[in-house]
Amino acid sequence: MQPTVNHSPDNTVITWPSIKIGVNAENIREAPYGLLADILVASTVSPETVHGPLRIGMMSQRDIRELTVDCQKRFGDLCDWSAIIPRSISLIVATYRAGNAPVVLADVPDPGEPQYLVPGFLLEDRNVFLSAYGGSAKSIIGMALAISVATGEPFAGMRPAKMGPALFLDWEDEADTQSYRMRAICAGYGLKEPPTNLYHWAMTTPLKEAQRAIRRFVRAHNVELVIIDSIGAAIGGELVKEDAAIQAMLACKGMSPVSRLIIAHVSKADADKASSERRTYGSGFFEFGARDVWQAHRAGDPGGSEITVAFTNTKNNHGQKEPFGLTIRFTPGTITLDRCDITCEPDLIAGLSQPDLICYVLKSDGEQTAKELSENTGLRPEILKANLFRLRKQERILRLPSNNGRQDVYSLNWTHPKNLEK
Fold first, then answer.
1. C-alpha span between 62 and 84 (Å, rounded)
2. Average pLDDT of the segment spanning 95-121
3. What is the pTM of this model?
């Protein structure tokens, strides 16, 4: 008598066809003392058709014995339960531990170039981080992006490649707060009515425990974009622990094929550093598990009627994205978000990456020697030299021949797409 095994991200089902019994394991998760799961036993031939779900420690002999006795009492002598239950639990554990089966890469269809849900900003079906210090309008930016995908309105001048339902998973605010923000942003977009395909879910359980319910909702409603606000509140544990970060990022990845924007925080100590030096607060495995990381840096008072936020792409597995800015204006009942040139805001220049800072100085002040660039950017000569080498390889800058005994002069390459005037 051989069982069949069916495994998905949501559950593992062991079916015994000859005796018409199935053992279903859902919400499988690691615990300090082994694997836990919610086990449901079903029979199609007994008057008592279902037993469970029961939370079982699958490494606990006592739990397995108790489940065996319970099935004997409920279903009777349909089978040798002392053999079926332990064997089913063993297969569930082995299947979970094995994960996905290896594949021959040559048999996987060529996906072509990476696809974007919002070209220039948000990769399709990937974990993308947006990290910023408090008061940088992270939640408003996330809501504006969700409205953009739900309606097709451009976000920061970038029109979504696809329209579709969006889901805002919220561990920080309630529905009434987000309802006001949604309507104010819609007014700023010029929309007469709010979208009916934008869902808000006020979360009360950690992401790891809620992931199965989230996946079901995403599939049932054909969701294109999930906003997670914020990952620190979502994990329900200590942010500095590697295990908590890894499990959270796997839970986000498990929402595939939906796109995910994950909002995160930056510590006060990192807030005023250059974007290349800022890090998401907590374990490094948060950013390790993301395919793209955007750092947002605010200029202006957080309580004012207008702020400007600079976005720099500090991690990019599929090509560097150009920095951009958003000017966010608040008036009663309306929030507008307009793309802007971040170099117009002196407070934001310190947030630029080193290569972008060099290009900004060349763009603003014209041709310069390495000595002049070092003085005007504040970069040490050895750091500047490494950045100049990379920028020349990328063809973002040009080195002009020296004359009259002067040092070589560097100039912006105005034909490079990243250097074109906005």
1. 16
2. 90
3. 0.74
